[in-house]
């Protein structure tokens, strides 16, 4: 039986260019964190034979992610699309958080490192690390995950409501650049109220323009944005990102701009099907396929391995090679043992879980309606002023009612169709 994934591959053959960009982005993050970030977090781990201080890999991944949000959200129901995205993202993330937390707690005392707490674990599992100073990042590289979940959800809500048409999308994209800069320098200072800092950092407003860059490149590739407009927008986003860092890391911004030229070339030009890349395509495709698992497991677990090797007397080159190898091994294991099987299971069972949840909520609603009713006046008198007229529901207009099971929604039917295509 032909699955939706194989059908998609037939419609749009996988391009070498995008795999090359993913590999460059992810593995530059790995090397940068090992050689540059680890001695900052744990000074005893450095120095390494060389240092890659340029921070551009994670930003590139977000731009590429935003581009493919625009490519894929248009196909089929957005409910199915969002479910598919979260089913691929969240299980691996949750497992990575728990594993990293357990390993860090096991070695923290002997290494003299900060000990993560159960509160930190809960905050990271719920992706609210940046919303309160009471939470600490179990792995700081996880900052991209909450913003991706937020962006996917926003795309699923806005796209069916016509935000991809007319002037609204360009206005939204420019808002993603301008509004965070205004907030940063008008209200979000070091002495700002905690709720302002929590909202700004929790929503990652200093990075939302990256999704605007990906969407702008997609609009340009579809000939819905002029080359001049796209170029001005990308330059404005780069300037905004440098401003958010108070112009203290301009070399990283320049490096990011250079990589964005590659993203633009991949989106608007021919595939990079040249002899050198064609020969290495199997390895490039494999490394790109495990890139999310590599990203989730490389940093803190790499720091732990580096410390163990340092204590064992391994030199800097040996520790660098071992940490990169560990990132690839753990990334492969996370992909094969968690990400892919969890994704398949959720696609097959998601509609069933959804229907059962709706039935349970409907049964709860019926049970509440069947409770004996107290006369409104008597209730108001005995409770000291409870309003007789119930308050309006805070449920959004587009949120499905759970008062009755009813027929499946179109999104649910989409999930059923997708799930059945996955079952052999």
From TrEMBL:
Record lineage: Bacteria, Bacillati, Actinomycetota, Actinomycetes, Pseudonocardiales
Segments crossing the lipid bilayer: 16-34, 54-74, 86-108, 140-159, 171-187, 199-220, 253-274, 286-310, 316-335
Organism from which the protein derives: Actinokineospora auranticolor
Annotated stretches, region: Disordered: 374-411
The keyword Isomerase belongs to this UniProt entry's keyword annotation: no
Name of the protein described by the UniProt record: Peptidoglycan/LPS O-acetylase OafA/YrhL
One MF term in the entry's GO annotations: acyltransferase activity, transferring groups other than amino-acyl groups
InterPro entries recorded: Acyl_transf_3_dom, Acyltransferase_3
GO CC term, one of those recorded: membrane
Acyltransferase domain segment(s): 17-335
GO biological process: polysaccharide biosynthetic process
Pfam families: Acyl_transf_3 (PF01757)
Keyword Ribonucleoprotein: no
UniProtKB keywords: Membrane, Transmembrane, Transmembrane helix
């Amino acid at each position: 039986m032909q699955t939706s994934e194989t059908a998609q591959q037939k419609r749009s053959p996988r391009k070498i260019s995008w795999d090359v960009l993913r590999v460059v982005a992810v593995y530059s993050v790995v090397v940068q964190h090992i050689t540059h970030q680890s001695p900052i977090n744990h000074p005893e781990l450095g120095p390494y034979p060389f240092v890659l201080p340029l921070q551009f890999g994670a930003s590139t991944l977000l731009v590429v992610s935003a581009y493919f949000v625009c490519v894929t959200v248009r196909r089929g129901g957005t409910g199915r699309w969002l479910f598919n995205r979260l089913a691929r993202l969240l299980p691996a993330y949750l497992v990575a958080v728990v594993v990293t937390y357990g390993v860090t707690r096991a070695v923290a005392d002997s290494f003299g490192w900060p000990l993560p707490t159960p509160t930190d674990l809960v905050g990271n599992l719920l992706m609210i690390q940046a919303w309160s100073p009471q939470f600490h990042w179990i792995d700081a590289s996880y900052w991209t995950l909450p913003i991706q979940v937020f962006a996917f959800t926003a795309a699923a809500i806005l796209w069916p409501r016509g935000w991809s048409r007319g002037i609204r999308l360009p206005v939204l994209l420019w808002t993603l650049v301008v509004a965070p800069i205004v907030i940063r320098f008008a209200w979000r200072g070091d002495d700002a109220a905690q709720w302002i800092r929590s909202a700004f950092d929790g929503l990652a407003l200093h990075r939302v323009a990256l999704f605007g860059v990906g969407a702008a490149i997609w609009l340009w590739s579809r000939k819905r944005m002029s080359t001049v407009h796209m170029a001005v927008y990308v330059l404005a986003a780069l300037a905004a990102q440098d401003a958010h860092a108070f112009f203290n890391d301009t070399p990283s911004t320049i490096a990011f701009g250079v990589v964005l030229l590659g993203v633009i070339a991949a989106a608007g030009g021919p595939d990079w099907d040249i002899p050198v890349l064609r020969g290495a395509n199997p390895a490039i495709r494999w490394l790109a396929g495990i890139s999310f698992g590599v990203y989730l497991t490389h940093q803190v677990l790499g720091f732990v391995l580096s410390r163990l090797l340092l204590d064992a007397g391994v030199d800097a080159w040996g520790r660098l090679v071992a940490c990169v190898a560990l990132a690839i091994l753990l990334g492969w294991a996370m992909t094969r043992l968690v990400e892919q099987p969890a994704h398949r299971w959720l696609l097959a069972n998601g509609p069933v879980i959804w229907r059962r949840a709706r039935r349970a909520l409907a049964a709860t609603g019926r049970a509440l309606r069947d409770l004996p009713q107290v006369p409104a006046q008597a209730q108001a008198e005995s409770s000291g002023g409870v309003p007789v007229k119930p308050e309006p529901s805070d449920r959004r207009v587009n949120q499905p009612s759970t008062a009755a099971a009813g027929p499946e929604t179109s999104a649910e039917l989409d999930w059923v169709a997708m799930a059945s295509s996955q079952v052999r």
